């Protein structure tokens, strides 16, 4: 349990600095029933810095939900299309589009999604974007395809954060990195010679809370990703650790040792109004708000070993949630509040589990896992994984069928946190 709350950090902030190496994505597994969709090259997309259609294909493929079919040629959104021919080739849907340059230098990106079975148009988008935003626009189109064909909002245009550990010449450095959900377009938010962990996104996606030991003690900071400014949220006596945002972004739950043993506290988002939530002689740590913001899930050793408990944000008795396994940590709650993900030490290793909170049914999703984080649509969980002596990130669907691995040659990457939907 000591490892759960002893957090030593040091970081200096370097907003907007590009990270040196991009992340590779490896995909394994598919969903139970894949949707066959043909993706055509966009007309004139060579004028863009990156191929829009290639990014869309990669997004849809790594979701595991789609069987992506190459349309074999470029097809403009204004072209007359024989949808019956694409249906005959096995595609239930078709993505087409075009790219053109505007007088002001921006790119006009247009797309259509066609239903080859019903011979109808399902969706269309037309946006003018700067060349640097070509990738983001492609992610948005992939999101639209995902939502129109599955009924669930896509997460390709969301952002993730993670810690990259660089080793060289006997020295370590640590970067708090913000990137696209596919690991591309990395930006360094914080940098230091000491460890950085526990980043947590604000619900509006503009801030990340984390802990730094640059002042020779663990202190909770909030970094504004838009302005580059940061603020101290908790600098109490002892350890200040494990920040977690409330769903409405007005509060943070923290683990503090100011009273002796580590306990759970709640503060306003600006650090004011601190109040103690748990009150035991043991260790209460790793708090997480429930989906509705009315409860706190946390880890406690009050039963003799670390287990996950739940209690009201207003205080009162705590209810034990996990009973299988003697060591259960790192609770995370799905955005809809229906699923608990956590790390359980069983069978000689640390493994990722998910529980349906209504039925209590558990499912083992991944082995060798730490630090889980739900995607904002609740369909995927990102976690840290150590294989072959190198720490990397991995993603698994909540049904366990689809798995991805994100890795980089530059160093270890860990401590993932999946950002929210952006407005």
Automatic annotation (TrEMBL):
TolB N-terminal domain location is 24-122
Q: Which UniProt keywords apply?
A: Cell cycle, Cell division, Periplasm, Signal
Recorded hits in SUPFAM superfamilies, A to Z, give: TolB, N-terminal domain, Tricorn protease N-terminal domain
Query: Which residues are the signal sequence here?
Result: 1-21
Q: Which InterPro entries match?
A: 6-blade_b-propeller_TolB-like (IPR011042), Tol-Pal_TolB (IPR014167), TolB_N (IPR007195), WD40 (IPR011659)
Compartments (UniProt record): Periplasm
Q: Does the keyword Cell cycle apply?
A: yes
Predominant place of localization: periplasm
| Known partners and oligomeric status | The Tol-Pal system is composed of five core proteins: the inner membrane proteins TolA, TolQ and TolR, the periplasmic protein TolB and the outer membrane protein Pal. They form a network linking the inner and outer membranes and the peptidoglycan layer.
Q: Which family does it belong to?
A: Belongs to the TolB family.
Q: What job does the chain carry out?
A: Part of the Tol-Pal system, which plays a role in outer membrane invagination during cell division and is important for maintaining outer membrane integrity.
UniProt protein name = Tol-Pal system protein TolB
Phylogenetic placement of the source organism: Bacteria, Pseudomonadati, Pseudomonadota, Betaproteobacteria, Burkholderiales
């Amino acid at each position: 349990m000591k490892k759960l709350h002893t957090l030593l950090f040091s970081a200096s902030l370097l907003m907007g600095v590009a990270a040196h190496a991009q992340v590779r994505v490896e995909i394994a597994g598919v969903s139970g029933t894949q949707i066959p969709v043909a993706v055509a090259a966009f007309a004139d997309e060579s004028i863009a810095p990156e191929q829009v259609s290639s990014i869309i294909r990669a997004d849809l493929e790594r979701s595991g939900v789609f069987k992506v079919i190459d349309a074999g040629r470029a097809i403009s959104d204004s072209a007359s299309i024989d949808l019956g021919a694409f249906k005959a080739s096995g595609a239930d849907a078709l993505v087409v589009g075009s790219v053109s340059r505007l007088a002001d230098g921006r790119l006009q990106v247009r797309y259509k999604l066609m239903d080859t079975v019903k011979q109808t148009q399902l969706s269309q988008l037309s946006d003018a974007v700067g060349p640097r935003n070509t990738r983001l626009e492609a992610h948005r189109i992939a999101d639209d395809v995902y939502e129109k064909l599955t009924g669930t909002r896509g997460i390709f245009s969301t952002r993730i954060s993670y810690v990259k550990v660089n080793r060289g010449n006997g020295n370590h450095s640590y970067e708090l990195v913000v990137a696209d959900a596919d690991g591309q377009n990395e930006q360094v938010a914080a940098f230091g010679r000491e460890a950085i962990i526990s980043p947590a996104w604000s619900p509006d996606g503009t801030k990340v809370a984390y802990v730094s030991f640059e002042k020779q003690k663990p202190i909770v900071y909030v970094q504004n990703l838009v302005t580059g400014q940061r603020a101290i949220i908790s600098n109490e006596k002892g350890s200040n650790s494990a920040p977690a945002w409330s769903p409405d972004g007005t509060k943070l739950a923290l683990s503090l040792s100011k009273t002796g043993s580590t306990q759970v506290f709640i503060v306003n988002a600006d650090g004011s109004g601190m109040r103690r939530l748990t009150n035991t002689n043991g260790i209460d740590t790793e708090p997480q708000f429930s989906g509705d913001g009315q409860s706190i899930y946390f880890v406690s050793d009050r039963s003799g070993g670390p287990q996950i408990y739940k209690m009201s944000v207003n205080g009162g008795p705590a209810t034990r949630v996990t009973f299988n396994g003697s060591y259960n940590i790192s609770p995370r709650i799905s955005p809809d509040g229906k699923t608990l993900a956590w790390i359980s030490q069983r069978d000689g290793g640390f493994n990722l589990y998910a529980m349906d909170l209504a039925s209590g049914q558990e499912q083992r999703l991944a082995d060798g896992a730490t630090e889980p984080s739900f995607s904002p649509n609740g369909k995927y969980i990102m976690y840290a994984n150590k294989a072959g002596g190198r720490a990397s990130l991995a993603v698994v669907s909540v049904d366990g069928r689809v798995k991805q691995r994100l890795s980089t040659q530059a160093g270890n990457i860990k401590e993932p946190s999946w950002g929210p939907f952006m407005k």
